[in-house]
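Per reviewer request, we include the raw input and output of the structure prediction for the construct analysed in the revised manuscript.
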Amino acid sequence: MAALGATAVPMGLQEMITSLQNGVIDGTMSGISIYTNFNLQNVGKTLLETDDTLLIAFVCLSKAWLDKLPPDLAKTIVDEARKLQPWAEQTAIDEGVELRAKWKSVGGEFVRLPAADLAELNKRLKPIGADITKDNPVLKAFYDKIQTTAAKY
């Protein structure tokens, strides 16, 4: 947030809603599920889409637990979990479409930055990942791997 000239104030959801209503804060950064499911159209109707972050749902298993299972059962669990991936991905896409429609149906709107402003936002955000991972070799290696993978797409 500092790169954008703003101050981040982490707070719980209830405090955030009250703070928006009372003008203590003038904006939030969250996923659309928060805005629609908590009826925040009553506080503000405009959501600015910048595509600057990803909210990713994932499923994981405890390796320690998995390693304690008989090999055939562990393999079955991993195989079945992998088969669920396409369903989970489509469910996330469908939920996004439904939430956007719900937001619009209650009078909400979506806006995007003009191209020049979006370019400026991306320019300010681009160095942050490298900067915050530079002092941690493990984290830096992971970040570099993500960057290399993202460059392919």
